[in-house]
Amino acid sequence: MFFASDNTSGVAPQVMAALTRANAGYAKSYGADALMTRVRARIRDLFQAPEAEVHLVATGTAANALALALVTPPWAAVFAHEAAHINTDECGAPEFYTAGAKIVGIPGADGKLTPQGLGTALERIGEAGVHGVQRGCLSLTNVTEAGTVYTPAEIAALTALAKARGLPCHLDGARFANALVATGASPAEMTWKAGIDVLSFGGTKNGCMGVEAVVLFDPAKAWEFELRRKRAGHLFSKHRFLSAQFDAYLEGDLWLTLAAQANAMGQSLVQGLARVPGASLRHPAPANMLFPWLAPGTNARAAARGAVYYAMEDQGREYARFVASWSTTQEDVDQLIAALIP
After folding, report:
1. Residue 127: partners with Cβ closer than 8 Å, 6 or more residues away
2. Which tens digit of pLDDT belongs to each residue from 123-159?
3. Which of 104, 111, 124, 272 could join 337 in a cystine, given CB atoms 3.0 to 4.6 angstroms apart?
4. Reported pTM
């Protein structure tokens, strides 16, 4: 009954086996390994983007912060949802790596920006001349921090507003695979075809040990990214161990298979909550993360029965965050639901 996060699960066996294979013998360092060449080719093929550049780092924070630093000057604003991970959970890393860019948090129901909300912020920010921050970039998250998803059309509507101001667009895809499975979209449709310039393509939350890909759909800034990654201390010397993870992750669409399992268990949780007295969803939950309202005392009862998840409260009401992972089973779901029922 461990539903605290999908990054608390283990490593998928296929990825662990790939790490063991990569451990044999010798390989060129700093990303010059043969596996990285294959990963780059596979990602270009998946995204129908033959010119895209691909760089690997070990954490989502590094991927987001370095990507944002690449496209945002220090005197500019990063427009994002107020609950976005870059705004609430990265200890100021985006501001640090951009050397001072300001994250402008924008409200929006169910963790999603709307064209109206973004448009208002774009009108307001950047109008104070030298005295205020300038418009910098747009950053979206899919799956969102509320467990909801953007469709490609919704992303395109938001990026169009940013592009009209000449702003580049970033997508935090820590749960990118889960968003694709939930929407049925292709990688290209969810990214560059919808106006995304740089993607943080997550692996860690979906069965990898620790690897994220930064995909630059405009290769012009690839060298600058390499310099920023090295300067920030995020260029691995034994890079083959990052490459091996992503190579296995993409092999035979494993990444989508793992996400499909996580999403299926998320949907099983949604269905099971119908049997829990007083439970209802705070947001739509089409993927693997959900936030149900719960009756008073439910969190304490479930914890006493061994359930592990984030128990929260808002204005005196109990609620929870449940996240299913690639390794979550139906038995796990059934046990959690039983723990929630009086």
Report:
1. none
2. 999 999 999 999 999 999 999 999 999 999 999 999 9
3. 272
4. 0.97
